[in-house]
Amino acid sequence: MSSIRNDHEVARDLATEAGQQLLRLRARHGFEEPEVLRTLGDRTSHELLFSALGRLRPSDAVLSEEGADDRARLDTERVWIIDPLDGTREYSESGRTDWAVHVALWERGELTAGAVALPAQGSVLSTVDPPWLPEERPAEQRLRITSSRTRPPEFVQRMATQLGAEVVPMGSAGAKICAVLLGIADLYVHAGGQYEWDSAAPVAVARAAGLHASRTDGSELTYNREDPSLPDILVCRPELSSTLLASIRDVADRDSTGPHTAG
């Protein structure tokens, strides 16, 4: 891979390459030992991405879910934030396609490039050529909320009930945000625990495509912080953001005063 490629292309090409390697590993190893497959997938993809970024962008720092956190990144202007295998559970289950590879670049306070590979779906979404969003969604169409298939936050179901929405369970955070980008869902909302690598790349692509992306209280998503935890997120079409943030606040207020407090 040529070092003269721009950052958007580097993110796209590395996510694509890592995804193809993960597909080959999955096919070769099979699904009889899911824990072994998950471990191999995490390590193999991390090593590929970390090594390639070291060659292509040797002056940049890297924050990876699978690597040691080099605190020098806090004094660096450019940091690649990567999740070598987002959705490890789904990766190790035969037939599942909702897992991803995330590669993003944070530069001087902003996400400036990103790519999400969905290898089992044969798709890569990136800031090279962000997906085109339809100008409008049908007003009569029922809202579709994508949420965790294994750890769905309780407030999501209450929010869905309030909005008359359908909950679409899915694995990887990258796959969920890409579902919004591709029109499979209208919003992704999560609270209860994530890290910067879970959302950096899909948020970079979502913003480039014109989607709203914020914390669930409406505040800014910020990256390359000393503590990489980033526990909640809302990604949706921009015209829905005010309504959805109000719904989240209402559900949170009810939770704090009503019978669901203990849950």
UniProtKB/TrEMBL annotation:
Chain positions recorded as Mg(2+) binding sites: 65, 83, 85-86, 198
UniProt cofactor(s): Mg(2+)
A Pfam family that the UniProt record links to this protein: Inositol_P
Endpoints of the signal sequence: none
Reactions it catalyzes: adenosine 3',5'-bisphosphate + H2O = AMP + phosphate
CDD domains named among the record's database cross-references: CysQ (cd01638)
Keyword tags: Magnesium, Metal-binding
Tagged with keyword Metal-binding: yes
GO BP terms in the entry: 3'-phosphoadenosine 5'-phosphosulfate metabolic process; sulfate assimilation
Alphabetical list of InterPro entries matching this protein: CysQ/Inositol_MonoPase, Inositol_monoP_metal-BS, Inositol_monophosphatase-like
Keyword Cell cycle applies: no
A GO molecular function held by the record: metal ion binding
Coiled-coil region list: none
Protein name: 3'(2'),5-bisphosphonucleoside 3'(2')-phosphohydrolase
Organism: Halostreptopolyspora alba
